Structures are given as C-alpha cells and as structure tokens.
Amino acid sequence: MTNANKEDNMTGSDEGRTAVKPGLFSNGFSLGKILLEGRAFLALIVIIVVFSLLSPDYFTFHNLVTMSSHVSIYALLAIGMLLVILNGGIDLSVGSTLGLSGIIAGYLMNGVNLKAMGITMFPAVWVVVIVACAVGALIGVINGVLISRFKVAPFVATLGMLYVVRGVALLITNGLTYNNLEGKPELGNTGFDWLGFNSLASIPIGVYVMVIVAIIGSIVLNRTVFGRWLYASGGNERAAELSGVPVKKVKVWVYVASGVCSAIAGIILSSELTSASPTAGNSYELTAIAAVVIGGASLMGGRGNIRGTLLGAFVIGFLSDGLVIIGISSYWQTVFTGAVIVFAVLLNAVQYRGRRKKQKPSATPPTTTSSNLAPPPSAPELEKTAG
Q1: Over pLDDT 70: what percentage of the chain?
Q2: What are the tens digits of pLDDT across the range 292-334?
Q3: Of 97, 240, 276, 376, which has the fewest Cβ atoms less than 10 A away?
Q4: Does residue 161 lie within any of the structural domains?
C-alpha cells in the first residue's frame, strides 16, 4: 500500500478523521470526549436530580407523564428541524405552521358553511388531521422551492413564511380563538380531543405520536437511500451533486417533512387545549433549534441524529417545567433557557472544531520558482513509483 493510500484510509471518513484528531478526540479512552458527546444525556440526568431534590413532586410518575406530554410538542418540531439542519438549512416557520395547522383544524371542527348549498359540513376527525397535515406540507413545499429553485437564503425564505403563515392564521380567525373543539356526537365529529388529551396505559397519545415519528425519522436517516443523500448533501452539497445526488429534491422534501411535523405538533397541541389560537407556537421555532443543537447536531449540516434531538427536547422541556414547579419567575426561565442554548452552541463548536480544521485547506501554499521546478516524471518512472 502506498503512502497516499495510507493517508486516504486515515482521513477518508468521519470515523477515520476522529481517529487521528488530537486532544479530546484522540485515539483511545478520553473522558472529555465521552462527556462532550453525551452532554445531552448527562444534562438531563443533572436536571432530574437537581429538581427532584428541590421539589418532592418533580420526580413522580404523574409529573413525568405531564412533562413528557409537553416535550412531545417540542420533539415533533425538533425532529422536522433536524432534517432541515442536516441539509444545511434552517426553518423559522415551524412555530407559525403549528399555529396555522391548529387553526385549520379548529375551523373544520366548527363546521364548513357552504352557502351556495345551504348546508354546513362537519368533517370527521381523520379528515381534519389529513387536511391540517396537507397544509403543513404545502408550506414546506413553498419553503423548499424558494430555497432550492430560486436560491433564496433559508433564513430569509423561512422568515418571510413565518410572517405570511402567522398572518393567514390571524386573518382566518380575525384574531380570535376557536374554543370547544371536542365535537358533538350528533354531528359525527367527536374524537379530536382524544389525540392530545386522552391516554393509553396512562401515557398521553401525544407521547406515542412522538415515538412513532421518531422511529420513522430514525429509519429514514439510517436505513434508506434518502438518508444517505441527506447526510451527503448536508456535508458537502457540491460534491453530493457531482456524485449524482438529487440535492434539490432532497432540499424540498426535508422542508415538506418539517412542515408535516409542525402540523402534527399543532394538531396535538390544539387537542390538548381543546382550542386553537392563531398565536400558538410563538417562538417555538427557537425552541426547536435549541433542541437540535443541544442534541449535538452541527448547524453547518451533515451531522446529527434523532436520538440526540429527542434528548435535547427533553432537556428543554424538563428544565422549563422544573423551573415552573419550584416557582422561578418566567423572566428567569427565559434567562436560564438562553444560557443553556448558548452553552450548547459553544460545546458544538468545540466538538466540530477539529473536523473543520482537518477539512480546511492550507492558507499559505508553498511558493515555487522556475529554478526549483523539476521536470515532470516520465511514464516508466510513474509506473515504478506506483508499484
């Protein structure tokens, strides 16, 4: 094996690059590496221990179930956000998509008035769910097309959609809230509250939905061609495109998935509250991004997984609920949450700094002059060197 081949084997993949990194990522046992890569799990354990000592009601089955129900909303948004971030993008419209999806569900549950026919239709709950998810997918398509086809920056495109979608929700309701979404038996539209309010084996339905979506997302990322395409295009879009990856289609589909996840979260939240507000999900996009970052994903794209994202969502949810239980002011809750996010970003910078340095080309290439240039080797010499 030649020296060049040896170098390729050492640096040709993330695993190979990890093996030759100095410091925290050196070969062999490293406590710093273990703590850094498992920071989300360790943070969750610390949060549970600390708040259990501060409040006897924190670590109880009933409270854990309640907190998990809250986390399911964050986790669904974060799973969709993870797919977008793996692609090297960002989706700031997930919070407003959540709100609009809830409004669509509330509008349908209150009946669709067909004036031309003189009747009011009350769709079944499964129809309501499908229509709301379709709205989320449509928003994702618009985001994906703007970004992939028209080359609009993801931040700008999704920020604009944030305002558009929120404005549409406000226009539909005229700023009001849809209440009493339980439905009526005589109208055949009952069961909407079951999605988020009821439980199976003492576990809220929303938690089951979160687990199912997480399993599907994990299978897609780890067991399908689309998952490989997503990691490849997020790591190096130009190289992936030259390798035959349909990067534009991948980009559109990740935004569609993000929109559908947001819609599911909006349906569950509206079901839990049995009401739908046009301002629901305000600033939830930041919570979703925070969960992804805390879970260890790189904002540069190409690195991250579902497991870490779920842990990040649990960290944020358990921290927020713990601060409420011990009576901390909502203002201080914002401070603590922001500090956790900043700390997570700093740890991400430390974790991926070595990889960026490894990929960065030399800033000062060696200079050559006509006096020290050697003539190119002949064909026999090349064959001898290759041997």
Answers
A1: 83
A2: 999 999 989 999 999 999 999 999 999 999 999 999 988 888 8
A3: 376
A4: yes
The structural domain count of the chain equals 1
Does any domain span residue 304?
Answer: no
Distance CA(196)–CA(182), nearest Å, equals: 11
For residue 15, how many other CB atoms are within 10 A of its CB?
Answer: 7
**359: pLDDT strictly greater than 80:** no
Q: Is residue 144 a part of any domain in this protein? A: yes
Residue 82's domain comprises 61-290
The C-alpha R_g of the chain, in whole angstroms, comes to: 25
CB 335 within 8 A of CB 323: no
Average pLDDT over residues 83-88: 97
Phi, psi of 311, deg, nearest 5: -60, -40
Question: Of 198, 136, 179, whose CA–CA distance to 161 is shortest?
Answer: 136
Q: Is residue 30 part of a domain?
A: no
Cβ atoms of 163 and 99 closer than 8 Å: no
